[in-house]
Fold Homoserine dehydrogenase.
Amino acid sequence: MAEPLRVALLGCGVVGTEVAQRLTTHAEAYAERIGARLELTGIAVRDTDRTRAGIDPALITDDAEGLVGRADIVVELMGGIEPARSLILKAISHGASVVTANKALLAEHGADLLAAAVQAGVRLEYEAAVAGAIPIVRPVGESLAGDKVQRILGIVNGTTNYVLDKMDSEGWEFDDAVKKAQELGYAEADPTADVGGHDAAAKAAILANLAFHTPVSLSDVYVEGITAVTAADVARAKAEGYAVKLLAICERLEQADGSDGVSARVYPALVPHEHPLASVHGAFNAVFVESEAAGELMFYGQGAGGAPTSSAVLGDIISVARRRVLGGRGQSEPSNGALPLLPIDQIRTRYHITLDVVDRPGVLSKVTEVFASHGVSIETVRQKLAPVDGAGNDGAERAELIIATHLGAESALAATVKSLEKLDVVNAVASTLRVEGLQ
Ligand SMILES: NC(=O)c1ccc[n+]([C@@H]2O[C@H](COP(=O)([O-])OP(=O)(O)OC[C@H]3O[C@@H](n4cnc5c(N)ncnc54)[C@H](O)[C@@H]3O)[C@@H](O)[C@H]2O)c1
Ligand SMILES: N[C@@H](CCO)C(=O)O
Ligand code: NA
């Protein structure tokens, strides 16, 4: 058996607690798998006075810097940008390998951190950063490295999937569902990162880097969250044969000159009930990958929560520990390809537009004329016979039109919605949702 490896844990919250407990309870099994014991030397936290069930109080410290300086493996589970970033850089400069679940940090500073790891010849692993327990970072980054990934559609945020699913299946109110997701340990410290789509956007950036071998950071990702999605949207979608899902989409797109570009984006979308992603319920995550040679792949499992996330963290710890025992090269070069990043208006998608309109002769032709003027082709138009419900509605002269478009340019679709908003016969554009996952 090789010399023990000193492990420093930064953070003892939802995920850190589970990691610390398993490092202790499974110590013998891990030693056999690695060929060396893992010695947990300390756990850095903000509040040292709190008692933590199942954690040896002697391990708790507020001296994260000191801990990092004496470790072979640093496991960062604090979250946030600073001091996580500086501590990871310090660990790397000391020759320690690093494991992190911090998607926000990786999406903003991943390139610099990976470059530092390459320079120092150490590993930086982050399987837990995308879709929690689901093995997806290694499959996309390594198993599919010889393939050509065309598209990734991912439900990569457990909180928002839980919220949308509860609204869909049990008619919960948005705020109640968010509160419950927080109680269950799925949500970020600040849940606006979840419902605003930024957590999913960080994961989209990480996946796009891996899939397209091109540097993509958080600011390159177009983001819409789920705060504007109403119970009426979810109910209407269900009646039309769709589930509303917050999707992270990474796509290789052909540009006008025939060369490839990359789009990374997050928005709530209508997914047809027949698509496998529509059956992903609760806080579960799933990542649907389409690639040239492999075809369609689906990765499914628990994407949030302490225990599931600890599985991915522990797998990474064992992987970097084995590497230290066996020796060999550290991190491979980070993405250095150069596919251009395409803004949202250059993608192609489909819209479902719900209009609250005046119900009288000639309205439909006025509405369809707007679509035609923007070169947008309509697939179906449905008018609800019942008048639109709601405050202030006298029930006499209003109707709901649901218009589904064919695949079209985002720029034309968005311009169509703007023109519809100005049309005198349109009381309101009640909702606009993109449709994804149709062949
Ligand atoms: N909770 C999940 O389901 C989940 C899933 C995947 C990834 N993650 C990521 O894992 C990381 C940890 O998440 P969590 O849910 O366990 O968070 P948490 O808020 O429950 O725990 C954070 C821990 O870090 C400590 N900490 C924070 N700032 C510190 C500082 N400046 N100095 C010392 N200690 C500090 C806190 O004391 C606490 O022990 C985050 O990056 C998060 O995005 C979480
Ligand atoms: N807040 C995140 C945790 C997992 O990254 C989620 O809800 O998916
Ligand atoms: Na994962």
